[in-house]
Amino acid sequence: MKTKLKDEIRAAGKRVTRTRQAVLSVLEGAKYPLSPTELYGQLQAQNVAIDLVTVYRNLTTLKELGLVTQLELHQEGQFRYEIKEGREHHHHIRCKSCGRIVDLLLCPLKKLTAFIEQETRFVVGDHSLEFSGWCPKCQ
Amino acid sequence: MKTKLKDEIRAAGKRVTRTRQAVLSVLEGAKYPLSPTELYGQLQAQNVAIDLVTVYRNLTTLKELGLVTQLELHQEGQFRYEIKEGREHHHHIRCKSCGRIVDLLLCPLKKLTAFIEQETRFVVGDHSLEFSGWCPKCQ
DNA sequence: TGTTATTTGCAATACACTTGCAGTAAGGAA
DNA sequence: TTCCTTACTGCAAGTGTATTGCAAATAACA
């Protein structure tokens, strides 16, 4: 786990605990955004003693610190989390058949956001843009 | 409730029941997409005898028949439904403060979908694009 | 090493949604 | 109109994800 992350946690008045490090460490190694349950499963496989509740609480804290991004994939009905460090803003596509998740390294929404703010008089905070379909193997 | 809808339901081998008509009727009058609980509340206010489970089951059926669209707003953690009849494909923006939901009568994703299919070799089925922010009153 | 506020684990709870099943009713056939 | 089949409904119970309360544990600072 990167020293920079530890410093940011302490700078926010939070503690670098055994479980928090374990959660971040799994997220650092993840190839796609993980659900709390998946993360918990990986920790158990590594024999890390941790409660699922603690996973949830750590994810919430890390999201509040801005170290982790929370996202909802299209019609999946749960949250997923991925580490922010060193990653551009991006979106995802998920296979409706096998559940495989792939990053889309793009975001076409900057101009559109300005247009929406002008049209609706809302101030836009966030957006979610997620695709689903069928991956090459499942077509 | 429109005759066309009744015909489509019967054509699919489903029945035009008292409760199904009530559900559709509320959706026809809705100004924004409703959650199952909101829909149930409106039916109770109209003294329609119906169980929440029946609301869920009817929404599922109507979605399968293609008469109703199911959507997830940004980080809300529940589904919402709106009637499809006479409405273009569109997206939404939701106020993070008061929950107000406004339609966005646009979709910038046709070209992007083609690009994503080319890049990922997925076949794109659906997408979700939802915005959240602060409405004029809550700014 | 001691102090204290943060964090953890366990149990209980909340909430959206689903399932099983017996009884009800829509709607085509007679 | 009446009958019959099968979709549909209501009630109760069950999932699965996420949250909360509280006493015990522990990180971090002096």
Question: What keyword list fits this structure?
Answer:
homodimer, 139 residues, alpha+beta, three-stranded mixed β-sheet, two-stranded antiparallel ribbon, 5 helices, 40% helix, DNA-binding
Question: Please, could you describe this protein's structure?
Answer:
Chain A is α+β, with helices and mostly antiparallel strands. The first copy, chain A, is built from five helices and five strands, in the order ααααββββαβ. Chain A has helices at residues 3-11, 18-29, 36-45, 52-64, 110-120, and strands at residues 68-72, 79-83, 91-95, 101-104, 123-134. In chain A, the strands form two sheets. In chain A, strands 4-3-5 form a three-stranded mixed β-sheet, covered by helices on one side. A two-stranded antiparallel ribbon of chain A has the order 1-2. In chain A, helix 2 packs across helix 3 and helix 3 (36-45) packs across helix 4. The N and C termini of chain A lie far apart (38 Å). The mean pLDDT of chain A is 92. The interface between A and B is medium-sized, with 35 and 35 residues. Chain A binds a DNA duplex (30 and 30 nucleotides) through helix 2 and helix 4.
